Amino acid sequence: MTTTGDEFDETAAGDDNLADTLADLDEELAESRAAALRATLDDYDLDEDDAAVLAGLVAGEDGIEYLPALPVVAIVGRPNVGKSALVNRILGRREAVVEDTPGVTRDRVTYKAEWMDRRFTLVDTGGWEPDARGIDRSVAAQAEVAIDLSDVVLFVVDAMVGATSTDEHVVKLLRKSGKTIFLVANKIDDARQEPEAAALWNLGLGQPHPVSAIHGRGVADLLDEIMKVLPDVSAVAKHEIGGPRRVAILGRPNVGKSSLLNKAAGEERVVVNDLAGTTRDPVDEIVEIGGRLWTFVDTAGIRRRVHLQQGADFYASLRTSAALEKAEVAVVVLDVSQPLSEQDVRIIDLVLESGRALVLAFNKWDLLATPELENQDRRRYLEREIEQDLAHVSWAPRVNISARTGRHLEKLVPALETALTSWDQRIPTGKFNAFLAELVAEHPHPLRGGKQPRILFGTQAATRPPTFVLFTTGFLDAGYRRFIQRRLRELFGFEGTPIVLNMRVRERRQR
User: Fold this and answer.
1) Where are the domains of the chain?
2) What is the longest distance spanned by two Cα atoms in the chain?
3) Cα–Cα–Cα angle for 343, 346, 350, nearest 5°?
């Protein structure tokens, strides 16, 4: 009988042989074994992305291989100036949707691009407008986040229309960012129209670069200039460890996020009120806990989707998502006096989707510390709710606190340090492939349609969060992938961080 993926989750846990084998394995032997496995990939059809993953591996001082963070180029401007058309021209293919209607692009969309053998990340954004309302406001906010998380910004202006008041607003935003700016004068289709671009000197951003995104005129020259200033490794794609680590405090309204920040800061830094939704904007504060400095970011409570259609709560939730993107670890605050809700689970899933480290803070624990019978019942129900609703994040550190009294607040520090250490953790390629070889030998993938997928080679392509790439001969069942992730946690820790497991299914090259 063939074992299903879900059944496999339950039948293959608890072996200690793999851990003992990895502990005894000589590092030099592990690396030579990994090199041999890597050589076998030459017999398979690999695409450009595969080659980038394998060739882009860089050995750090500790001998561990990793992928450098690609530099980021963001394209911004007001609606309908040709940003997406420029994206398509740089990529050399039609990826971004282009239509002669303002507002087609809404989200921040990233693409992998290459010019003169240099790879970089290209970010397309929606049109930026001041005083926008509704969904246009959210589009503009996404463009502002793109500027913050970029190394170089291309500011696209319709040269045939000239600089507008909206363009001047964007210029003010760009100057505050301190980024390297390229002023792109688009829709210059021939030499006779180039004087139109000269008028854009008035924006004060230096020389305009005349291009025609539709016809490709001037785009190559623009890319050559960008390559001269684009860094080899992004300064923003991965947050630096140098300063205080950034901690986003998340949760639904009125669970005690602001009280937690105030108690950590030792002062009334933010307004606290029984009225849910008091906080609107993310509030940054450097606090000292356990002898270490941290940058805590109090955010607005995330409500159910039905409440996000209009008003200040809509914008507050949007800014909360942006604050999470800039953070390194998220503390999700849960109110133990109330049953865990679908909102709580959705907020945790939002953190998982963002790839941030995770700590669960069960607040208002002082209410359960009293000996009343109803509190004892609530405590028992809470444990059951955690087992049922939070089983998918059982690896996240849990801290029981009282933000109002400051009880056990110091326990946040080891939990945060554990999560961040796991978030930054790397496994050497040799040790990872030894882990895979022993795992597959003990518990091979179940047969599917008479065939058994094989894992050819694996590597950790990135950290923050730990991201692994598996080259396989077939698609691995979801249950088997979960099994690999669970065994990774058992052997290497990874407590407090999501693990990303990507597959690249490849066929043997025809001879």
Assistant:
1) 5-64+426-505, 72-229, 245-420
2) 85
3) 135
- Asked if the domains 5-64+426-505 and 72-229 are classified in one and the same CATH topology, the answer is no
DSSP-assigned states of every residue in 62-127? TS-EEPPPPPEEEEE-STTSSHHHHHHHHHTS--S---SSTT---S-EEEEEEETTEEEEEEE-PP
Model confidence at 131, pLDDT cuts 50, 70, 90, reads low
Under the banding of pLDDT at 50, 70 and 90, the label for residue 237 is: low
**DSSP code at position 161:** T
CATH of domain 72-229: 3.40.50.300
Side-chain-facing half-sphere of 377: CA atoms under 13 Å? 3
User: How far is residue 232's CA from residue 229's CA, in Å, rounded to a whole number?
Assistant: 9
What is the pLDDT averaged over residues 283-287? 68
User: Is 90 exceeded by the pLDDT of residue 63?
Assistant: no
Taking the domain 245-420, which CATH number applies?
3.40.50.300
What is the mean pLDDT of the segment spanning 138-167? 80
Tell me, which fold does domain 5-64+426-505 have in CATH?
GMP Synthetase; Chain A, domain 3 (3.30.300)
